[in-house]
Amino acid sequence: MGCSKTQTQEDSEFNQCNEERSLCLHSFSDLSHVSAATFMYLLKDCYLYGTDKATPKFKILQLQVKRALNNDPQPGPFTYVVQCMYIVPLLGKTHAEGFSHMLISSLRHLKSVESVQKDFLDAKHLAARLILDIVASIVPHEERILIKLLEAYDIELRDMADALYGSELGDEDLVKAKEHLKQYVQCLMESESYVTAVNLITRFSIQCYDESFLTKLIENNHLEAAEKWAVFMGNEMICLIIQTYLDIKMLKRANELVKQHDLTEKFPDVNYLYKESVLKKLAEKGCWDIAEVRAKKETKLMEYLVYLAMEAGYMEKVEELCQRYSLEGYVNSLVPEEICCGSDYLDLKELILEDIIWVDEIDGLLNSISYIEACKIIGVDCEWKPNFEKGSKPNKVSIIQIASDKKAFIFDLIKLYEDDPKVLDSCFRRIMCSSNILKLELKCFQSYEMLLDIQKLFKGTTGGLSGLSKKILGAGLNKTRRNSNWEQRPLTQNEKEYAALDAVVLVHIFHHVKGQPQFGVTEGCKVEWKSHIVSRVKNSRSTLRF
């Protein structure tokens, strides 16, 4: 009656799919008569038929497996999982580790269940046998899975000896079991499987290796394994790893170990050195306000922060901290020659800039745009108030800098947007969408024509714009003010100069590269900068990304 053959076929496939799904759900709801092999193949089918992406599918199946292991698997959930672990490698390498992790992690909540304690104890022997089969490469599982099995089943040396030599164990059997495991540890070391080796050494108290082993772990960046092994070996090795961390300037880890093992008396300066390193990193990122909060309670740290500000040539910050914390005496006590001020940085005066013009009125905006429209090349940059709260959205752009090689304009977007947002957008659209002006750099526009991101011409250069400036012009940019509060008004003269320099330097770098082709060379091939010019015109209401 009008029902096509295709429709009938689709209905048949749909019914078959529903039947398979019903069979699977029924099996999961009662495992008393479902073998481990059947369970695993049904689990794989559930995964393959799922329409979600891999991660959500695994999460859903994880919940199903947790529930299923409460539904009377025989002889018990811990034994059942060991049986499943023998089947998993047969499902294919693609799914093996994921399914193994799913099964083992599903046992965690069952450890405290009274009714399965007998099965847990009985399964330890089987789990130890499985571990030996993995060690002997009879059952192919990843080393990570081996470690998870050891932890999930609380496998001890006696369990391993029982699996090797039977239940009637003597002291010599434990010694032989340890020697057997020691040989496996040596094989792991030869294959550079250091983390697994450390897990076996510490779990089964295998005394082997010396200080050189610790060095090897640190050199290969297995720091957690190195610390675990050091703790296992005792106080002397803990002190050695702390000293090693201090030598290679890993102060955070050194400080944590000193606190954990109450070694302050032996390493009295570590905590202060760590705090100093935190301040230095914050200062390098320009996070002076956060650094100040961290240093507030300790005068010595505050003095160090003042020193960092002087070293960076951030003299208004020096003055601000000295006034706030009465540190003028400390500053006067410093020998000027010992402070390396920011002489390595590019000075705006070297670029012979005629003027920096602050624009916060509509008339000034219109005049500035008229000047910029007559330029052939401009540098563009922007600044916004930093947001240090994790997961929060970045703040809106506060200022935009546009510069030729002679003049720099700093536009106060907060004020101009409040006064007349339509005129503001129209003015920037005239600049950004002009095919007569080459724009260097971009961070805050949705539509533009003739844009050149000059940093893309030098892919191997590190350190951002500052690194590029150092490579091309011979001096980097002082970024100490990068995290200033750019919404605060008025900006200081130093902040204005910092903002202007970021835009002006782009123009000078471009002229330098254009005039001296060797700076655009990669293995003897000149970079053709014109091919990197891009346009992006969108029919949006606003050119600016407010």
TrEMBL record:
<protein>
    <recommendedName>
        <fullName>3'-5' exonuclease domain-containing protein</fullName>
    </recommendedName>
</protein>
<dbReference type="InterPro" id="IPR052408">
    <property type="entry name" value="Exonuclease_MUT-7-like"/>
</dbReference>
<dbReference type="GO" id="GO:0010587">
    <property type="term" value="P:miRNA catabolic process"/>
</dbReference>
<dbReference type="GO" id="GO:0003676">
    <property type="term" value="F:nucleic acid binding"/>
</dbReference>
<dbReference type="Pfam" id="PF01612">
    <property type="entry name" value="DNA_pol_A_exo1"/>
</dbReference>
<dbReference type="InterPro" id="IPR012337">
    <property type="entry name" value="RNaseH-like_sf"/>
</dbReference>
<dbReference type="InterPro" id="IPR036397">
    <property type="entry name" value="RNaseH_sf"/>
</dbReference>
<dbReference type="GO" id="GO:0030422">
    <property type="term" value="P:siRNA processing"/>
</dbReference>
<dbReference type="GO" id="GO:0010494">
    <property type="term" value="C:cytoplasmic stress granule"/>
</dbReference>
<dbReference type="GO" id="GO:0008408">
    <property type="term" value="F:3'-5' exonuclease activity"/>
</dbReference>
<feature type="domain" description="3'-5' exonuclease">
    <location>
        <begin position="357"/>
        <end position="512"/>
    </location>
</feature>
<dbReference type="InterPro" id="IPR002562">
    <property type="entry name" value="3'-5'_exonuclease_dom"/>
</dbReference>
